[in-house]
Model the fold of this input.
Amino acid sequence: MEKMTGSYELLFFIKGTLSQEEAAAVQEKFTTLIAENGELVKVDEWGKRRLAYPIDKINEGYYVLVAFKSTTDFPAELDRLLGINDAVLRAMTMRVEEAKSAPIAAEEAPAAETVTE
Done:
């Protein structure tokens, strides 16, 4: 039986108190984990930014947005692993619905206006 797959986006941020090398190592750890358990579509590093509000007296974090495809059971495990990692302040995984575009039928298409003089 074929397993169902879905498209997901993960946004997480790493403590801003870490060095840039340490933050890159944490990011690499999770992007490698995603690549091993699914298909890594895109990694968008937003860099170090100020948080909207302090979390555990930390005001800055390294933001990373990851788009990936995987089986439907993997995101729950990924959230669990992100939650127990001390370097990750917050993480959110969202399922992305793929746009379904249906061709416009000829009878639904607006009629072209013709100008006769």
Observations:
- The mean pLDDT is 86.
